[in-house]
Structures are given as structure tokens and as C-alpha cells.
Design goal:
With 557 residues, the protein is α/β, with parallel strands linked by helices. The protein has helices spanning 9-16, 23-29, 33-38, 46-67, 73-84, 86-96, 98-101, 106-110, 117-135, 137-147, 149-154, 165-177, 215-233, 238-252, 269-281, 291-306, 360-380, 409-423, 456-469, 488-492, 527-546; strands at 182-190, 195-203, 206-212, 312-320, 323-334, 341-347, 387-393, 432-439, 448-450, 476-478, 497-501. It folds into three domains: 9-154, Ribonuclease iii, N-terminal Endonuclease Domain, Chain A (Orthogonal Bundle); 165-231, Double Stranded RNA Binding Domain, CATH 3.30.160.20; 298-546, Zn peptidases (Aminopeptidase). The protein is built from 21 helices and eleven strands. It is globular and about 70 Å long.
């Protein structure tokens, strides 16, 4: 029997400071879809969540715009993302006791759904949506202001890039010196409960050091010190540079806003992807079902939110070869004119049982490429025909050998989602135009293979795109083997899918001795390889947008 919530809606209304004219709206806002599946007459909170998401976004934009008149768009977006994140909304929902007031189905009750971050964040948005539906936007905005007054007051504007000095330093070093920062862990002092790490960084013969409570913190402090040093050294040039900028301003013109601008990546995109890979690799191990994987999924969602997306964390528990495990796919969509979707997929988890396994290439590189592409579309804002879903799969790696209950958990779950959409007759029966999976794409000696078990027209599109790009793309060839990867569930369920993978990963051609070992580290990753892979994926997406190679039965009319 479904368990009833322990907190009544009246207590929630009191905590909100709003008296509902229609109490059923609050009741609905506190109804999880799992309850509605078991009680068909009770609507769930998803429509109100949709409305509440708009309330949160608009009210935050208004408050930040008023409070920080000198902040630029990127800084305002960062601050909005920090307060509109699932974690921030879930913390506020927990403080209000929404978890105890949620009506949950039996499965959600067993799995602790009353403290699930995703459920709490959705409930917070749904409750604000209920206030808006009950009394209008101004009432909902007033409730939001009361609830988040302390968080908004605590926000401080900061210089662009100050939240991630390592990423900023990598971009600066690439542009100014044509090289990557080299970090060294110098020492560890202090007690086990209060360690102090020292790290140094070297760029073009310059060095700087920093300390922190963790190795990661020490490297960030070293990067911040190097940035400060470089800015001080260039201070004497600022006046001259400003004068020359004024002289050139009249002839520089406005950057072209052509619709095709999205098809070309900026030169520094590879460096930004390298920074993403480096950040993700610092979260290891991230085997499915572990705290590391949970931390990695939250980190991915945070990056997407900062770009302006609204990421979805699809978390579930299922029986596997090694018992019940929890997985979490993260995805976000760049909406096109049609709901027909092109999925760009990567797994982010690492394989278990390998000591000190970082997964810089296997999981890290493709995740970084997808984040770079998501950022690129968010910045160029193209008018696309198809919706592009950036999908970050959990549970790709098997514990033993691949079988139905071991490996490909995340991609299988998403493939079945599209089966449901297809069975519902959505988009003329073809909701998924293509699934393009990338894996192990950061090797310095990058050469991509397409396995035999892919959709032929997508293989043709990839080969043609690579040939047209010439040196801007990695070499692409058809392999002689079948490869089990995240494209397989889509192919087996009748959807077009392809896998692009560099399976020759080692200290010498053909040795493959870095794969699934502690040698899979960031020093093996090349920013240029990440850039070329992303360029190829963009070119394939562009061909699909134009309808090149796409069968008429799949293409948008």
C-alpha cells in the first residue's frame, strides 16, 4: 500500500506564507508522478513544475538585473545558475519540509524519494507554480523573494573566470604562449585531519605556487597566483592596448550573425574542452552507483546550467549482475523547431576494479567534447530544424562482461524512452533522427573507427564529413569488427545510431596498453584532438540538418 506523507499541505502553505484560494493546487504540486501512476484520479505536479520553473527563472533574472547593474551577461547567468540549480532548489525544499509532504508511489518510498534531490527540486518549482496559478505571478514572486532573500543577499559579483582559475589559465596560456600549464604537486604537510598541500605551475618559463586543503585546491591556488602574475606583468601595456583598441574600433565592425556561424568552432574551443576533461578527471573513480559517479553527474549538470540549459538528472535503481545499483543519466536539450531529436551521447562513468583509474580518455574526453559543443550552441544560438540532446550516460562500463544486466545501462534506458515516444506516435513515428556516440576521442594520435554494427547512412555521413574537413577532422575509417558501446541499444531498438571511437590507445601504435589502466591520465589527452572530434560531430550534425544522407522516411518534411 502507498504510504501517506507525514506533513500536511496546510503546514507547507504556512511555511510558504501563502493562503491558497484553491488548496487542490498545492495538493497537486506535492504529487509525484509515481503516486499518480497508482492513483489515476490524482494529477501529478509536472505541469505546475513547468510553470514554477518559469517563475524561478524570471524572478531571478529580475532580482539579479536590479542588484548588479554593472555585471555582464555571463556573470548574471552564473549567479542565476547557482540559485536555480537542482541542489539549491532541493536545499530550500528540504528546509520547508516538502519531502515529508510529497505523495510518493511505493517504489519511490522504498528508494528514499522523499530526500531525492531531483524530486525535491521539482517539488519546489511545482509549489511556486501552484502559487502563481492560484494568485498570479506577483504573488509567486513575493514568495520566492521571502524564501531566497538570504541566498540572493549572499551573492557577490566576481570577475569572469574567477570561479575556475585553472580553466581560465589554460585558455590564457593557449592563446598567449601556445602551450598548456604544467602542474606539480610539491609537498604535503600538516596532520591527517588538516592536511596542507602545495602545488606549482609552470608556463613559458614562469612559475607560481599555491596551497590548499586538497591537491585540487592547491593547483587552483597556483593557477590563481599565475593569473595574478601574468596580469601584473602585462599592466604596463594596458594603456597602449586601450589606445590601439580605440583607434581600431571604428573599423572592426560587428561580428557576423550568419546562421552558419554555429558550424565552425572557435580556435580555443579545444582548450576549453581540455579544461572540462581535467575537471571531470579530478572526480575519480566515478564508477556507476558510487559517490564519485553522483558527484560527477552533479558537476555535469552544473556546467550545463551555467551555459543556460536546464539539465535533466534521470536517476533510477535497477537489478544488475552485481545486485541493485543506482544510475543517473544527465541530459540537456538545445531545442530546434521540431521535437525530432539528434542525440549526441557519451558515457561519463569509469570501469570498476581498476586501481587509480582516472578515465581521462575513456569517458572523460567524449564528455568534454559534448560539453564544449553544448557551450558552442548556447553561444551561437543557431536556428536548428532538429532538437539536439546532449546525453551523458551512466553505467556504460560492465563489471564483468557485457550482457543485459551488466553494462550499457544508461543508453539502454534512454533508448527505451524514445521507444515510448515512438509508440505514442510522436513526430510521425520517428522521434529520434540519429544517435551519435563518441568514446575515447582525446588521444594525441587520434584516428576514429566506425564499427560494423552501426546504421549505414550515418557511417556514410561521417566519412563524407571527415573527407570534406580534411585536416580539420581526425581520420575516420570503417573497422572490421563489431564493438559493444552505447550505440548498441539504439540500433537494437530500431533507431539510427553510430559509434565513433579510437580503440588504439597506448604507448605505441597497436599496443593498446593504456586502455582500462591507471595510465589513462590527462597527460595523454590533446586539446587539438578534442577540437577535431568536435568539429567532425558538428559537420555530421550539419549534414543531418541539411538532409544530406538522411533517408526520406526519417527526415523532417
Amino acid at each position: 500500500m502507498t504510504e501517506a506523507p507525514t506533513t500536511e499541505p496546510d503546514a507547507v502553505a504556512k511555511a510558504l506564507g501563502h493562503s491558497f484560494r484553491d488548496p487542490n493546487l498545492l495538493r497537486t504540486a506535492l504529487t509525484h508522478p509515481s503516486w499518480s501512476c497508482e492513483h489515476r484520479d490524482d494529477p501529478d505536479n509536472q505541469r505546475l513544475e513547468f510553470l514554477g520553473d518559469a517563475v524561478v527563472g524570471l524572478r531571478l533574472a529580475e532580482r539579479l538585473f536590479e542588484r548588479f547593474p554593472d555585471a555582464r551577461e555571463g556573470e548574471l547567468t552564473r549567479m542565476r545558475a547557482s540559485l536555480a540549480s537542482g541542489e539549491a532548489l532541493a536545499r530550500k525544499a528540504d528546509a520547508l519540509g516538502l519531502g515529508h509532504a510529497l505523495r510518493l508511489g511505493r517504489g519511490q518510498v522504498r528508494e528514499g524519494g522523499d530526500f531525492n534531490v531531483h524530486n525535491l527540486a521539482d517539488a519546489m518549482e511545482a509549489v511556486l507554480g501552484a502559487v502563481c496559478a492560484d494568485a498570479g505571478y506577483n504573488a509567486a514572486a513575493a514568495v520566492f523573494d521571502r524564501l531566497f532573500a538570504d541566498e540572493i543577499s549572499a551573492l557577490r559579483a566576481s570577475p569572469p573566470g574567477s570561479e575556475n582559475p585553472r580553466s581560465e589559465l589554460q585558455i590564457l596560456a593557449s592563446r598567449k604562449f601556445g602551450e598548456m600549464p604544467q602542474y606539480t604537486d610539491v609537498s604535503r604537510e600538516g596532520s591527517d585531519s588538516a592536511p596542507v598541500y602545495t602545488a606549482s605551475v609552470v608556463i613559458a618559463g614562469r612559475s607560481a605556487s599555491g596551497t590548499g586543503r586538497t591537491k585540487r585546491g592547491a593547483r587552483a591556488a597556483a593557477a590563481a597566483a599565475m593569473l595574478k602574475s601574468l596580469r601584473a606583468a602585462s599592466g604596463a601595456c594596458v594603456a597602449a592596448l586601450a589606445a590601439s583598441c580605440l583607434l581600431c574600433a571604428g573599423c572592426s565592425g560587428k561580428r557576423s550573425a550568419e546562421s552558419s556561424a554555429w558550424e565552425k568552432l572557435p580556435p580555443d574551443a579545444g582548450v576549453r574542452m581540455y579544461a572540462y576533461d581535467d575537471e571531470l578527471t579530478s572526480i575519480s573513480p566515478r564508477d556507476a552507483g558510487t559517490e564519485g559517479a553522483a558527484k560527477a553527474s552533479r558537476w555535469i549538470a552544473q556546467q550545463l546550467r551555467q551555459m543556460g540549459y536546464r539539465p535533466v538528472a534521470d536517476c533510477w535503481t535497477e537489478s544488475t549482475y552485481t545486485g541493485r545499483r543506482t544510475f543517473c543519466n544527465v541530459w540537456a536539450e538545445y531545442r530546434g523547431r521540431s521535437r525530432k531529436t539528434v542525440v549526441l551521447g557519451s558515457h561519463y562513468d569509469t570501469k570498476s576494479g581498476i586501481p587509480d583509474f582516472k578515465g581521462a580518455n575513456d569517458g572523460g574526453s567524449s564528455t568534454a567534447v559534448l560539453l564544449g559543443l553544448a557551450e558552442h550552441l548556447a553561444e551561437t544560438k543557431p536556428d536548428l530544424k532538429y532538437t539536439v540532446r546532449f546525453a551523458f550516460f551512466d553505467g556504460e562500463e560492465s563489471v564483468g562482461s557485457y550482457r543485459e544486466d551488466d553494462g550499457l545501462h544508461g543508453s539502454r534506458r534512454m533508448a527505451f524512452e524514445f521507444v515510448g515516444r515512438r509508440n505514442a506516435g510522436e513526430e510521425g513515428g520517428n522521434p529520434l533522427v540519429a544517435c551519435i556516440v563518441a568514446d575515447m576521442v582525446g588521444d594525441r594520435r587520434l584516428a576514429l573507427d566506425i564499427p560494423r554494427n552501426v546504421t549505414p547512412w550515418l557511417a556514410t555521413a561521417a566519412i563524407k564529413a571527415s573527407l570534406a574537413l580534411k585536416d580539420a577532422s581526425p581520420p575516420v575509417s570503417i573497422a572490421n569488427t563489431v564493438i559493444v558501446d552505447d550505440h548498441v541499444p539504439f540500433v537494437l531498438l530500431g533507431f539510427p545510431a553510430i559509434d565513433l571511437i579510437d580503440f588504439d590507445y597506448g604507448s605505441a601504435p597497436g599496443r593498446h596498453d593504456w586502455w582500462h589502466t591507471a595510465e589513462d591520465t590527462m597527460d595523454k589527452i590533446d586539446a587539438g584532438s578534442l577540437h577535431r572530434t568536435a568539429t567532425l560531430l558538428l559537420a555530421i550534425l550539419s549534414r543531418i540538418e541539411r538532409g544530406d544522407d538522411v533517408p526520406q522516411a526519417i527526415a523532417e518534411p
